[in-house]
Structure formats: C-alpha cells, structure tokens
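Progress report, Aim 2. The chain analyzed during this reporting quarter is listed below.
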Amino acid sequence: MTLTGQQEEESSLDDVGVMDFRNKLRRCVELNKKGTDQPVVSEGEKEAEETRLFSTYYHQWKGEDNCYNTGTYRIIPKFYHKLPSEDEILLQKVREEARALFLQRRSRDLLGNEELQHLWFLLDKHHTPPVIADEQMINYTDFLKVSTEAGTKCKSFFTATVFAKLYQKEPHGRISIMQFFNYVMRKVWLHQTRIGLSLYDVTGLGYLKEIDLENYILELIPTLPRLNVLERSFYSFYVCTAVRKFFFFLDPMRTGKIKILDILACSFLDDLLELRDEELSREMQESNWFSAPSALRVYGQYLNLDRDHNGMLSKEELARYGTGTLTDVFLDRVFQECLTYDGEMDYKTYLDFVLALENRKEPQALQYLFRILDVEQKGFLNVFSLNYFYRAIQEQMRRHNQDPISFEDVKDEIFDMVKPKDPLKITLQDLIYSGKGDTVLSILIDLNDFWTYENREYIVLDAAAATSDADEAEI
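Predicted structure tokens for the chain:
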C-alpha cells in the first residue's frame, strides 16, 4: 500500500470511534516526515502540525462549506450550534471534553473550605463595634476593607448591591456578619450544586431528562446518612419515588425535562440534602417526601393495594386508596387520562396520583385533578361537569343510608366559593386564584372529604369542646 493510501485510511471517518485521535494525528505527522525523508523535527513543530491537522479534519468532518466564508457570516455571529448526531462520535467527544473542562474551571473559581474559614476570620477581625446582643455587625467602610484582603474569588460578594440587600435599617448603618456569611455560603452551595447537576446534563442545554436526574440521585444516596437504612434492592424504587416529585411539580406540561435553574430555585434539593443530618428527628423525616420512612410508606401502600401481586394496580385495587371513599366515576376518569398498561397502573403513575392527592393546594396538583374532571376537555368545568361527578357522591351517600344533598345547593356553593370570571364556567385559573380549589375538587371526588366539608362547623365545635375539657382536666 502507498503512503498516500495509508494517509487516506488514517483520515477515514469509520476509524474515529476505535482509535485515539491524538495518537492518529501524531502517526500521520510521522508518516509525512518519513515519506519526504526530512529529519526528525522538534516536539514544538509536531504540536503545531498536529494542531493544523486537527483543525483541518475537524472542519472537514463537521461539514462546513464555503458559505461560511461569505460576507454575511463575517458580519452576523453564529448563535445556533446544532447538537452532534449519534454517529458524529468525534464531535460528541470534543463537546463532552469542552464542557468537562469548562465545569472544572468554574469549580476552581468557587471558594473552598479554607477560603471560607479565612473569610470568616477577616469578617470577625474587621467587625464594626458596638456588638449588640452578641451579634457582630460591619459597616460599609470595614466591608470594603475585608474585600481588599479576601482575594479575587470573593470580589463578587463585596458589592454595594449585596450590602444594600442585607441592610435592615440598622441605626449605625451596618449589616450582620452572620447574615452576610450565610449569604456567601448559600451562593457557593448553589454554584456547587449547579455544577454538579450540569455534569449530568448530556446535551449541555441546561436541562435534565428523567434518566439524568435518576443517575444524579442514585449517586447521591451514599452521601446521605439518613438513607443508610435502605437496602440496595430498594434503590431503584427510591430513585423513582424521589424523581417523580421533581417532575410532577417542575414539569407539569410533561415535556420530559426540567431546567436546572428550576431545580435550584425550588426547595426540593434542600429537602433531599437535609438527609445528611444524622440527628434529623423522626417527625421531620416523616414529613419529608425524600426520607426513607416516607419512601417506604408510599411503596408499602402500593404493595398493600396490589392484591394480586402482579406489580400493577387495577381500578378495583386503587379504589381502596386512603379511606376507600373515592368515587367510581373519578377512578374511571383517572384510568382514562393517566398512562396505564393493559388497563392497570404502574408505580410511576401511582406516584403522580399520590402527589396530586397529598398536595391538593398546589397548582400542579390542581392541574392534574382538573384535567381528570374536565370530562368534555373544554378547558373549563360547567354545570354538566359538576353534576357528572356529584351524582357519584350522591350514590355513595345512599349506600351509607344518608340523605343526599341536592345538586343545586352544592353547585351554588361551589360557584360562590370560586367566584369565576364567567358565571357559568370554572377554569383552572379560577380555582387557583380563589384559594378554594382543593376544597372544590375534594368534595366532588371523595365522599369522606365531602362529609368533612358539610360537617365542618360541628367538627370545629367538637374540637373546641375537647380542648376545653382538656384545659379543665389540667386545672
């Protein structure tokens, strides 16, 4: 085979995925030198030739043509860069390496533990007297002194804007050192977390897909002491449980991806990382969706409902959820609107169902339930929709030998509570703005909730009487 043939074989795209690109370029340079009988060149010249070849092949394989040399492209900067396809292995590797280096550089710009300790030392050294209630304060002049000694990494924190944000009309014109230090710590934590999440952002567009977030949480589990009680066999169910909360609340339109900024802005990561506290009380854990007791509770309920042990829930099995008083009409609509497999619900779909019913005051939960109640898919609830679901409540009342309350009374009360813009239609926004959306939807889907609402005055009186009796007993 001729030397030219070897070079063509070296530049073949088919070899990119199986050979180290750097070694290939070096070999190509050596072959060029040997073919012309030139003396061995220095390392610097090899590097320069290697860079030239890389640039040539990169632009050639990227598919750039002469249109990039026209006048228009010199004037208008390129603002869209298409993501490399699956078969463009070189471009993918270059993109991944560039992102990794960028994130490493950003990580090095953050304050480390020693630098934070040094910052606290400087704040303590330059605090501005007098000390009030054991809380050290600092005025703007001393604030700037700390800035000059703290180093370049701290410059972004020592601005007039930050000082003004933390200023609370203190008579001596000072801010709390502790509040400022906590502000710095929070900012550093947010940047660290953003970099950590970005490592799982495969596309580099600022989003995490479901599989990306699953990988992040799976690798986070060993760092959370309060999750040590979980068996490894339960990890996949725990990850599914945790990820569903993020996607239920942060991706209500079901796009399959969440902005990293939205993850940082919500409190879910705080709740998750709270599990690092080894002294976290049992009560705090039970109220935290991400805790081991909470995850085991939800999964245990799912297993208890699954009577035939096939790993899925039928409508009859789901009817036993909670107090077992959800109406058949509502359950029918759940199975019509939600993703099912051969008419049965899997664990992921069940988690959305639980999150909606346990957080009915939240807009995302109201949206989930509204979609189910919107039988005609018109984007609003009218008299027909309300009556369609309320008839099931009336039927349940008859089964329990209770006298059904007339629909007209309930309908009027619902419209009085919501006060919609259109007196004949109730939209999702009407429910959210009224602050009564959870009450309205609850009395239409669950007999127990309807009974609680109808007897709310008696329940309050009974609770007050019980409190009074307890106070008298103590006396």
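The beta strands are 137-139, 174-176, 207-209, 257-259. Confidence is low (pLDDT under 50) at residues 1-18. These observations will guide the mutagenesis work planned for the next reporting period.
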